[in-house]
Amino acid sequence: MVREGQDESDAFATEVCWHYYVNGMTQGEIAKFLDTTRLRVNQAIQRAKSLGMVKVRIESPFVARVELQDRLRRQLGIERVIAAPARRDAYDYHGSVGAALAAVVTERLRTKAWRKIGVSWGMTLEAGIQKLPQLANPDVEIVSMLGGTMQGASFNSFSIASGFAAQLGASYSLLAAPIFLSEGVDRDLFLSQEIFADHFAKFEALDAAILTASDISPRSYLVANGLPEEFSPAAITEAGAIGDVLGRFLDEEGRTIDHPLDRRTIGVDLDVVERTPEKILAAAGPHKVEIIRAAARRGLIDTLITDDVTAELLVEPSEGRKTATLTAEQRAG
Amino acid sequence: MVREGQDESDAFATEVCWHYYVNGMTQGEIAKFLDTTRLRVNQAIQRAKSLGMVKVRIESPFVARVELQDRLRRQLGIERVIAAPARRDAYDYHGSVGAALAAVVTERLRTKAWRKIGVSWGMTLEAGIQKLPQLANPDVEIVSMLGGTMQGASFNSFSIASGFAAQLGASYSLLAAPIFLSEGVDRDLFLSQEIFADHFAKFEALDAAILTASDISPRSYLVANGLPEEFSPAAITEAGAIGDVLGRFLDEEGRTIDHPLDRRTIGVDLDVVERTPEKILAAAGPHKVEIIRAAARRGLIDTLITDDVTAELLVEPSEGRKTATLTAEQRAG
DNA sequence: AGTGATTTTTTACAGATGTATGCGTTGTCT
DNA sequence: AGACAACGCATACATCTGTAAAAAATCACT
CA-CA distance, A331 to B19, in Å (whole number)? Predict the structure, then answer.
């Protein structure tokens, strides 16, 4: 050509991409058609992609959610994120997340050979039970991962494990103890009872754990109904806690806070939970953003189930909102 | 899922496409990641494409031209179209087309083992010679496909073949005869001369033909300089002709017109040209639109070299201008 | 429960794609 | 002119992709 190299090569790449993407020709066909080698065509496509000449856009109502999930997944460094679409007009923190949790558990049970599933408790998990279909999994055992509350407003904390078991057609194993021991009770002595030893041994053998997280506020079922009188929410916050997972209060970095309350908690140790093969944490609500981040940092989440409202709040504000139109240069490598 | 099937499957397809196109994951990786089979992922991508969910856009200054060429190529039913970018401020019909012709010929000579190249003549081909680099093709013979003019304004019609040969470093073979025999000369007798028989035999053995086309107007070098006095342009038009290729006047359908002039023309028969393996026709200008269409219909064009202005005029107005953003559903089949 | 029909899942295989290797050509420097 | 380096090209090969057929599972019906 009389024209200079850059133009010519761009024009060539343009024509190659046109045939490839628009006309659907194969690289070999294009090479034959343009009297060149397949290698050249292949390289032209790769160059065009890396130059951002080829733009792939996915048009679907689900794109925003998928993108959000993907970004959050990378940011939190966890395996999977599900951001269920929340009702923005009647936002309740639990409805959509519960449905998504039910769907995930159902799907997982269909394909995985889970035997023991550890469960936490709380309003989010209660919502999940409501959405579960009736299944038959006689080989599955639902293992309660922490003690229960002695009083409550809406549901019995022990009923979470049994409720899961009932819907899943599974057996269950409760931890028949208060979540927080009374003052003066010797923890080691209490737990030395044989029945507890058997139960704690199951924690090490869980195939999956269904968790939730709460902040420290009256909205937290645990704080509202379970906290011993001598521990005020303010005192726990003072100690650096921003919320709890399984009754264990964590600081911003996901570390268990050093506080007398922790030594009175009856339930699985978070270090044990970390070793569980599949950890599903379901939680939503603007007030839970910090504790979800902390739980992720602690390594307590493989699959995060939340809603799109919370997910939006979870993503780093620094990471500017990307458009759904992205370059597909990734195929190059 | 609690949601209905359509939504779920669309959401799934969206997520799959996201991973595939945006994250650049392989179908197998996505299947493993989403706990499903590669088949499902493959089908989801195909469904998304066929639903128009995936849009591929090529962003390049050359897109418009490439698209134009491709559309024209299909419409004319020829192998290749090159629409060189014309200078719209100083439009001359020949500059850009000549450069493109030179580029094509150079490229073809580099890769193809052409031995005999037939050439027409005219201002467009003259422009091509000007843009040809100096090459060395001692094994190539340039064969003039028609007789010459006895007078002219700008260039000698015989110099086209010799000019090509000089630039290409090839030998040449002229047809030393007038393009139109004088009245009363017996054509068969004239052509029975041995030297012409040899030359005409070469027409059957051409590897390629470099052609052009003109309308019937003073802008045509042939009409202006070559037409016998007894044939007025009006008379030829009257006979149905809209232009000529190699001195053969064609009607709209590309048929050689039945006219006394045709029986006095000295040059290759168009039926012979049709059998030439590679026919390159270079022509541009709004006035040449009709004759280019006719030449294509006649099967005289494998590669059309024109400019973008002419190409725009050549495409059927009925075929609405498509946008450069097209669905890439073609990969499905 | 048994049986047949329908649908999924698995498996296999034929292209298509992306990459590395070695060879030949071109151009350049001494 | 000869040697060397750089570049491009053909080949080969390891995935990846798309599709069809076989096997298995599920479902509907008797």
Answer: 11
Nearest to B94 by CA among B231, B215, B212: B212
Quickly give A26 CA vs C14 C1' distance in Å: 15
A216-249 confidence digits (pLDDT tens): 998 888 888 878 888 888 889 999 999 999 999 9
**CB-based burial label for B138 (10 Å; 0-12, 13-18, 19+):** exposed
CA proximity to A1, closest of B137, B101, B309: B101
**Residues 6+ away with beta carbon under 8 Å from B158:** B121, B144, B148, B174, B176
Q: How far is the CA of B135 from the C1' of D3 (A)?
A: 27
Q: What integer pLDDT is reported at residue B332 of this predicted model?
A: 31
Domain boundary among A35, A56, A77: A56
Nearest protein residue to nucleotide D11 (CA to C1' distance) is A39
Q: What mean pLDDT do residues B303-326 have?
A: 72
pLDDT per position as a tens digit, B209-252: 999 999 999 888 888 887 888 888 888 999 899 999 999 999 99
Q: What is the arithmetic mean of pLDDT over A66-93?
A: 88
Residues from chain A that touch B70, judged by Cβ atoms under 8 A, are 18-19, 22-23
φ, ψ at A286 (rounded to 5°): -60, -30
Residues A244 and A96 occupy one common structural domain? yes
Q: Are residues A48 and A145 in the same domain?
A: no
Tell me, what CATH number does A39's domain have? Answer: 1.10.10.10
Task: With beta carbons under 8 A apart, name residues in chain A contacting B107.
Answer: 35
- State the CATH number of the domain containing residue B240: 3.40.50.1360
Domain count for chain B, please give it.
Answer: 2
Three-class DSSP category at A141: strand
Cβ distance B63 to A131 less than 8 Å, yes or no, reads no
Distance (Å) from the alpha carbon of A258 to chain B's nearest alpha carbon: 37
Residue with tokens 């049994």: A162
Full strand arrangement of the beta sheet holding B248-250: B214-215, B243-245, B248-250
Of residues A128, A114, A124, A122, the one with CA closest to residue A144: A122
